[in-house]
């Protein structure tokens, strides 16, 4: 069959995916190679890009995510709304669902992820995952008639929903001994829990406590680890997430610790589900709710075929090296779809977050541009230090380095300063050096912590004074 010109295209750089990783990659290519032909192929006509970049520290930024129709994108690269179906890496071309063949010189896969449901990827209408606007609209529709909702999971989405849902009974099932375990330790979880309970009460005399603990004194969190792009920051503010229960009644979520879903049975006419929970002590409990939100992580999205096998990691991500190269020649990958397969720097590890999608996308763009000009680039400095800026339970949160002692074994100490309903500051120290920090309710220390982690200054001589509220450590270490 002869392809019509519209059925066949050619470009130097082909980027697949209109999420933050794909758009950052295309933008960075457009900067490095302004005269090259760059094509962004995306399945959804709504694309995401980063805007309002505000520095929180030297290497740490917060930003907004802007949603745009592809037709409104600037002219620095071309766009095509279609779905990647097959990669022929030996011929350097791909085929789309609509049958378009695109020849490329360099390809970058930024196809993101989909919710990893606890029950597998089957289509039970009463078990939903949250990823894009469509999935939130589905949640919104279900909430309108719902009185009881179950949230399963203990990461970002579960924490946001448990805090944001209104006029509905929330049953929050977590397998850990504390909430929000993906991000925080038991102490911070307790801080959030108290703050949730005392939401409107003003404490006139906050008591500040400083505690130094050996690692073994706390329960560590073991470090593990037709789709539109993932939602943007504060996505819940643009949707009314109210159930059908009595208005304006503040209900706290009921939390089921150390529990898991044993079985789910649908009621007739999809009127709800009967859930049997299994608690850690071996006991069972039965609950009825309208539906379940499975906020149980992300599965990299690789629903396309390839002539040669791509190398995948055990979490389903496409393995990439420090230049974001996959195992296939001239094929790169970035964002949620990939798994960092390079020896990680001392203070960095991968988490599927906007910041890293943006950083990886930009890195892939620079790396592809360099390959095309036979130049050498080095890995960006951002991969030296893990940093995440977010909001949890209404508090600003900054996470730096190995903020939960990830990968430090049992050989570290933590120093905590906590002021009820105000701030929770944690330093993770190893051999007197700062290895990670968790700053809740107070971002002012972010830059100092960044410096202390990267410089590896010995803090032993300062003892507990480094968190003494009467000593301004920003001045101390300037
Ligand atoms: C509800 C929610 C809240 C979040 N909140 C935060 C937060 O507060 N902070 C934070 O740091 N991170 C947050 N995240 C995570 C963050 O959104 C993701 O890590 C990030 O958006 C990943 O970007 P990406 O570009 O890799 O993937 P995606 O945003 O998933 O984009 C993938 C793109 O690829 C396209 N695509 C997929 N398959 C194909 C194909 N075959 N052909 C063509 N196109 C295809 C899709 O249409 C999409 O445009 C949140 C995620 C969710 C779901
Ligand atoms: N504020 C922020 O930064 C936000 C970030 N996000 C990001 O969006 C993505 C999706 O969020 P989310 O779905 O919450 O994913 P997360 O990876 O944040 O959390 C998933 C949680 O579910 C738990 N879990 C996994 N499988 C099961 C299971 N079968 N039964 C019970 N619990 C299970 C995980 O435990 P374990 O880790 O022990 O496997 C973990 O606590 C993530 O990349 C997240 O980082 C989302 C919302 C807000």
3D structure, described in words:
The protein is α/β, with parallel strands linked by helices and 478 residues long. It has three domains: 8-112 and 301-379, FAD/NAD(P)-binding domain, CATH 3.50.50.60; 118-203 and 229-297, 3-Layer(bba) Sandwich (FAD/NAD(P)-binding domain), CATH 3.50.50.60; 387-476, 2-Layer Sandwich (Enolase-like, domain 1), CATH 3.30.390. Helices cover 16% and strands 32% of the residues. It is built from seven helices and 30 strands. The protein has helices at residues 20-32, 133-143, 156-164, 186-197, 354-372, 446-455, 473-476, and strands spanning 8-10, 13-16, 38-42, 46-55, 61-69, 78-81, 84-88, 93-96, 101-103, 106-109, 113-115, 127-128, 148-152, 169-173, 208-214, 254-256, 259-266, 273-279, 284-289, 291-294, 298-300, 305-306, 318-320, 331-333, 338-340, 387-392, 395-401, 413-419, 423-430, 433-440. The strands form eight sheets. The chain has a six-stranded antiparallel β-sheet. A hairpin with a 2-residue loop joins strand 29 and strand 30 (433-440). Helix 1 (20-32) packs parallel to helix 5 (354-372). The protein is globular, with a radius of gyration of 24 Å. Mean pLDDT is 88; it is low at 200-206 and 214-225. Bound molecules: flavin-adenine dinucleotide (FAD) and NADPH dihydro-nicotinamide-adenine-dinucleotide phosphate. NADPH dihydro-nicotinamide-adenine-dinucleotide phosphate binds next to helix 3.
Helical content class? 10-25%
Low-confidence stretches: 200-206, 214-225
Classified by CATH, the class of the largest domain is: Alpha Beta
Percent of sequence in beta strands: 25-35%
């Amino acid at each position: 069959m002869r392809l019509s010109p519209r059925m066949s295209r050619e470009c130097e750089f082909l980027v697949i995916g209109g999420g933050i990783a794909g758009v950052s990659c295309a933008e960075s290519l457009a900067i490095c190679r302004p005269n090259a032909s760059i094509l962004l192929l995306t399945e959804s006509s709504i694309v995401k890009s980063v805007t309002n970049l505000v520095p929180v520290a030297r290497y740490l930024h917060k930003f907004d995510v802007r949603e745009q129709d592809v037709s409104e994108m600037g002219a620095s690269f071309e766009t095509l709304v279609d779905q990647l179906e097959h990669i022929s890496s030996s011929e350097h071309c791909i085929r789309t669902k609509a049958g378009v063949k695109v020849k490329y010189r360099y390809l970058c896969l930024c196809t993101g992820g989909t919710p990893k449901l606890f029950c597998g990827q089957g289509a039970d209408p009463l078990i939903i995952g949250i990823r894009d606007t469509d999935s939130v609209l589905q949640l919104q529709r279900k909430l309108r008639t719902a009185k009881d909702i179950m949230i399963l999971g203990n990461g970002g989405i579960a924490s946001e929903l448990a805090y944001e849902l209104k006029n509905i009974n929330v049953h929050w099932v977590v397998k850990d001994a504390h909430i929000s375990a993906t991000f925080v330790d038991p102490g911070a979880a307790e801080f959030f829990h108290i703050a949730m309970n005392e939401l409107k009460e003003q404490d006139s005399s906050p008591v500040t406590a400083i505690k130094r603990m050996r690692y073994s004194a706390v329960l560590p969190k073991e470090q593990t680890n037709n789709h539109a792009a993932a939602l943007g920051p504060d996505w819940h503010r643009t949707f009314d997430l109210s159930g059908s229960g009595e208005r304006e009644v503040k209900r706290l979520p009921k939390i089921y610790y150390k529990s898991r879903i044993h079985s789910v049975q649908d009621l007739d006419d999809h009127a709800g589900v009967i859930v049997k929970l299994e608690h850690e002590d071996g006991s069972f409990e039965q609950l009825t709710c309208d539906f379940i939100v499975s906020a149980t992580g992300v599965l990299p999205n690789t629903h396309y075929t390839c002539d040669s096998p791509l190398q995948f990691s055990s979490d389903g991500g496409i393995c990439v090296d420090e230049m974001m190269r996959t195992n296939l020649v001239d094929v790169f990958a970035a964002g949620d779809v990939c798994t960092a397969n390079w020896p990680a720097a001392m203070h960095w590890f991968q988490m599927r977050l906007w910041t890293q999608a943006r950083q990886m996308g930009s890195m892939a763009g620079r790396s592809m541009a360099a390959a095309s000009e036979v130049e050498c680039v080095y890995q960006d400095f951002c991969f030296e230090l893990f940093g995440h800026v977010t909001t949890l339970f209404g508090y600003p949160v900054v996470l730096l380095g190995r903020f939960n002692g990830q990968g430090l074994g049992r050989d570290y100490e933590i120093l905590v300063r906590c002021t009820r309903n105000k701030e929770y500051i944690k330093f993770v120290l190893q051999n007197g050096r700062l290895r990670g920090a968790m700053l809740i309710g107070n971002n002012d220390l972010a830059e100092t912590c960044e410096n202390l982690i990267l410089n590896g200054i010995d803090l032993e001589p300062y003892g507990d004074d480094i968190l003494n509220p009467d000593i301004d450590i920003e001045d101390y270490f300037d």
